[in-house]
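Hey, I was hoping to borrow your eyes for a little while. A protein chain has come my way and I'm curious about its shape. Take your time with it, there's no hurry, and the full record follows here:
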Amino acid sequence: MKKSILFRLFKIGAIPGKLRPVLEKEGMVVFDEGIAGRFITMRVKGPSKRYFHRSEGFTGCLAITKQRVVCFTYGKRQINISVADPKISELYFNAHDENRLSLSFESSLFRDGWEGVIEFRFKTEKALQFCGALKSLHARQGAPTDAAKQGG
């Protein structure tokens, strides 16, 4: 799968330079950079933020090491959770096909004063590898809204 044009031209969406050696030392399980994707919010409320439904494109990276899961979009950290954190079981993943991965969570679990679902949709040829790694970390398959419908 082609990398985004911003990555090919300007390396936007690469793993940040200072973080790469740290992640390599932690033992990369699976990673991809220069990924095109969509950031989607559904009924999100936070300090001075209100989004009923918001969707925007991004170029970013996703990495899973033996110690953490990290996601950056346009160089800004979006997810950084230790694999030992019990909240990792509240991270939801889904492979829509072998080239599309979604990662979502209820924002109130990770940010004080926030509520609503945040989802990242990635176009990566490593979607199935990411799903396998996330499943081994006890992340959940599906979506936070699926759990709410089933009563938790």
Notes: The beta strands are 28-46, 49-65, 68-73, 76-82, 92-97, 100-106, 115-123, 140-141.
